[in-house]
């Protein structure tokens, strides 16, 4: 081994497809599970949160309007890019969560596979949750799911990578755009994920990643009038209640926190939590009314 | 302007319904007084005649009803689905048998025309119970349980427990059906609070539960005011809250259940856009506009209360619309020829009056057909406003009355932008002969129910509910089961 001095990475936010520092200029020390310094992560401000919402809103039309097939391809591309960075994420997850190298590698593998799982859902969820309704009258009647809009996601506190992807991927798979607040204690895998997304054909603004104080960032997101939903996975009980009250102001869809085994294959509940159902009616007319049976 | 033909009165007989001078709360299978002995009067909005005196539930009664429902839950949820189904089929059939009586009762207590209660409300009520009856033993097929190739995994669809349900006064029995049918089919038990101005049909429903032999405590009915509703929402032993009503109350409920495990569905206000393109068949569109805003005196959360008309046909469409409005018959709701009945309450009439006065004050142009209003009761003539801008209060706030705001647009993009420019997202209408335009516009509208070349159609198989501040969750169809299952 050479004595070469390594090059540190400045970890930055991922907002609107760019990598800004916090507008506040603040950073905080991120340490590994033993307390050793790892990096200075941006401590995002309320303004950063609002900027991220603007970026997510701007991206919503294009992303929700993309074909489900296209979204599936883009999500699969994320998995491809991750696959090539497995070593980097294994190191980051090992440091963040205090895991052995082999255990961290298993977590990263599961995370890549989770992206693949959700990539396959993009063009199937509409068939599972929507469909024709046999109304008692001469009408064509069809229910289809549509994305709710801009979703604020509080990533799980402990599972810094598998948990993060498990809450983020279902949000964007269905066409929502996301503002993600990374685990406060272990934000580095999330910030690195931004670098992967930026090189994976995910349009800028579809996913925005903030690091910093969860409570400090979650409060303005839960109260934001242009945020349509919030996933409280990373909030403790007291914070979750406070945020849910605040979210009622514009009737955000709220996914409450609960115990989740991130390693288990998920159900569809994180997909359906941020879907609306649109039902369209149209008269069918009455061909054959004269008695013809074709 | 054409006027209505002269018709001889054709009143439906009210002898088909026997309203008792007083009613109690329905708790644990029995009618009972309120703990504090409070009562309130329910009046006929078309005459202000007192119909009956009804026990008024308070916090102690809510607690008693929730305990009855909790006690009943154990056996009810353990019944085979096929047995629960048969109870619901019984209820559906008894509603059909008693539909004329219930239609007259509803018209008396609510003020809406008998034509509507007879031909819309009651058939839909029975259909709703019939539809959900069939689900009770098929929940494993509803797609909520998880099955993998390795065998069963994850939880089977299970009921939540006690459902606290609060319904509005605009479709009293139909909203009861939307709430109770899916709740019982999925194995929950129910405490339901009807609106204070329309308690009677829910109390008659209690009698139907008795006739059907429904086990005691499975359905509890608590007539009362907002304080009883608030107590029900806040009760710690309620597992599910379902509310239909105003957006303001819906937000308050969402705050109340924050931090609990209570599952919540809200069906709230709307400001539906009814979009008419220049190639629409005008006569059909006019009928759709009338249905959209004057059905049930416009006291409909999904009413098409904003007419968006393409500029090039504005004058032609308005002429036809005004001509049509001049033929609407306003008067005795029990008369079979009546199109427009009474406003449900003095309070609602005052709200409609205030908002329309504000519309005038803000500069919109008001028009109503020549229309004689009865001397007693609560009445409001069909009204439309032209020269309305998006900033006007009457284009933004839900009026919940027979008042239509007319706006114009030039391009489909402008129509969509204006239609979506609202805090609400419940319904919308599209009128055009061009299929691709219907699908393109329907795809862009942020609303839960889109009626194209029709309006205000409802069916138990068709999910209903809103986007944005019109609430969340769906009622009706397979989707409607989710609100009552632990999935």
TrEMBL record, chain A:
<dbReference type="InterPro" id="IPR016162">
    <property type="entry name" value="Ald_DH_N"/>
</dbReference>
<feature type="domain" description="Aldehyde dehydrogenase">
    <location>
        <begin position="23"/>
        <end position="254"/>
    </location>
</feature>
<dbReference type="Pfam" id="PF00171">
    <property type="entry name" value="Aldedh"/>
</dbReference>
<protein>
    <submittedName>
        <fullName>Aldehyde dehydrogenase family protein</fullName>
    </submittedName>
</protein>
<dbReference type="InterPro" id="IPR016161">
    <property type="entry name" value="Ald_DH/histidinol_DH"/>
</dbReference>
<keyword id="KW-0560">Oxidoreductase</keyword>
<dbReference type="InterPro" id="IPR015590">
    <property type="entry name" value="Aldehyde_DH_dom"/>
</dbReference>
UniProtKB/TrEMBL annotation, chain B:
<dbReference type="InterPro" id="IPR016163">
    <property type="entry name" value="Ald_DH_C"/>
</dbReference>
<dbReference type="InterPro" id="IPR016162">
    <property type="entry name" value="Ald_DH_N"/>
</dbReference>
<dbReference type="Pfam" id="PF00171">
    <property type="entry name" value="Aldedh"/>
</dbReference>
<keyword id="KW-0560">Oxidoreductase</keyword>
<dbReference type="InterPro" id="IPR016161">
    <property type="entry name" value="Ald_DH/histidinol_DH"/>
</dbReference>
<dbReference type="InterPro" id="IPR016160">
    <property type="entry name" value="Ald_DH_CS_CYS"/>
</dbReference>
<protein>
    <submittedName>
        <fullName>Aldehyde dehydrogenase family protein</fullName>
    </submittedName>
</protein>
<feature type="domain" description="Aldehyde dehydrogenase">
    <location>
        <begin position="32"/>
        <end position="486"/>
    </location>
</feature>
<dbReference type="InterPro" id="IPR015590">
    <property type="entry name" value="Aldehyde_DH_dom"/>
</dbReference>
